[in-house]
Design brief:
Layout: E1 15-18, E2 23-25, E3 34-35, H1 48-58, E4 95-98, H2 112-116, H3 122-125, H4 131-141, E5 147-149, H5 162-171, E6 176-181, H6 189-197, E7 201-205, H7 211-218, H8 222-236, E8 242-248, H9 257-266, E9 272-276, H10 290-295
Parallel strand pairs: 1-4, 4-5, 5-6, 6-7, 7-8, 8-9
Antiparallel strand pairs: 1-2, 2-3
Helix pairs in contact: 4-5
Bound molecules: S-adenosylmethionine and iron/sulfur cluster.
The site of S-adenosylmethionine has 20 residues, from helix 2, strand 6 and strand 8.
């Protein structure tokens, strides 16, 4: 094997992804590598499952979740093939993407969680991480993190332990903390100030500023989002937080993309826009895979 590791996937050396059910992974696939609880959440990064996963990659073996990875189509190479330390035990992840809660008040057209909770009461049954799980994790990793994405699944404002989470972030603040919201929960100025005091970047998830299209995709009136946006822009005058938008690319939003970008920047103060779900692979372009169904406007339910 070449000494220079250039085709390996470096994600398991940098990223820890934690789901609201305690499942975790060191891969962008949603498959859990193992599960943790409040007593061992601080051990996830070097758990036996994670170390075995890294060892397999170091030995050039494609095992477990790697077998299904789309990047296999490109000569084993991955866009994440950075130089890595050839060890399975690592001090700290660079980034953590966490889902404190899966509770959500919406059932967005294209969201995978809409599918997961189809037929269930997501506000009541949505999974959540406990305060002790979060404390344990934060004490071990947060202060040395480059980036924490604090909300990957449900709606952060509906997290039962939001105030505890903010307290923990104040104590163990990672270098950069980012979050996203649908902007659908009517939040008071005071709560916004608290949330923004521990974040560096916030994105509103909005795929179109067209009132009807937004209602179709997200299921609520965009007026609510605009009210929340107004509060954030007011707070931003005295706070260095970066404001942006996340837009999922779908066939129905493409004709309006130019207008979307223009309005995001000129009318709504966007400093960044991130487009989701736009990646392609040589042999799988527009194939039957789930992510392409969203592009074709197939509602997830
Ligand atoms: C699952 S949501 C959780 C955070 C929050 N509820 C929100 O909507 O911003 C996280 C991000 O995933 C995006 N998203 C939803 N469905 C998606 C899909 N099918 N593919 C890619 N991103 C998607 C949302 O627009 C949002 O920006
Ligand atoms: S608001 Fe976010 S988590 Fe909730 S359904 Fe929509 S995209 Fe999914």
């Amino acid at each position: 094997m070449n000494d220079k590791i250039e085709v390996f996937c470096s994600i398991p050396w940098e990223d820890l992804i934690i789901y609201a059910d305690g499942g975790y992974s060191v891969c962008t696939s949603s498959e859990r590598i193992d599960y943790a609880n409040e007593s061992n959440s601080h051990l996830m990064w070097n758990s036996e499952a994670v170390r075995n996963h890294r060892a397999n990659i170091l030995e050039g073996k494609r095992e477990g979740v790697c077998k299904k990875c789309s990047y296999k189509t490109i000569n084993n190479a991955t866009p994440y093939g950075k130089e890595i330390e050839k060890t399975t035990f690592l001090k700290n992840p660079k980034t953590i993407a966490i889902s404190p809660t899966e509770k959500c008040n919406l059932n967005c057209f294209m969201c995978g969680f809409t599918r997961k909770y189809h037929g269930k009461n997501r506000m009541a049954e949505g999974e959540e991480l406990s305060v002790s799980f979060m404390e344990n994790l934060a004490e071990s990793y947060f202060s040395d993190l480059e980036t924490l994405n604090s909300n990957c699944a449900g709606e952060i404002f509906l997290y039962t332990y939001l105030l505890d989470f903010i307290r923990i972030l104040k104590e163990f603040k990672p270098k950069t903390v980012i979050t996203s919201t649908s902007g659908s929960v009517m939040v008071g100025e005071r709560t916004w100030e608290e949330v923004l005091s521990v974040h560096d970047k916030i994105s509103f998830s909005v795929d179109s500023f067209d009132r009807n299209l937004h209602q179709t995709i997200r299921g609520f009136d965009i007026g609510k989002l605009l009210k929340n946006l107004e509060i954030v822009r007011e707070i931003k005058k005295n706070n260095k937080i970066e404001l942006g938008f996340n837009a999922v690319i779908m066939k129905m939003t493409i004709p309006g993309l130019f207008d979307f970008v223009q309005r995001a920047v000129e009318d709504h103060g966007a400093e960044f826009i991130s487009f989701q779900n736009v990646f392609d692979f040589e042999s799988e372009s527009f194939s039957k895979e789930k992510r392409w169904r969203i592009f074709y406007n197939n509602q997830i339910k």
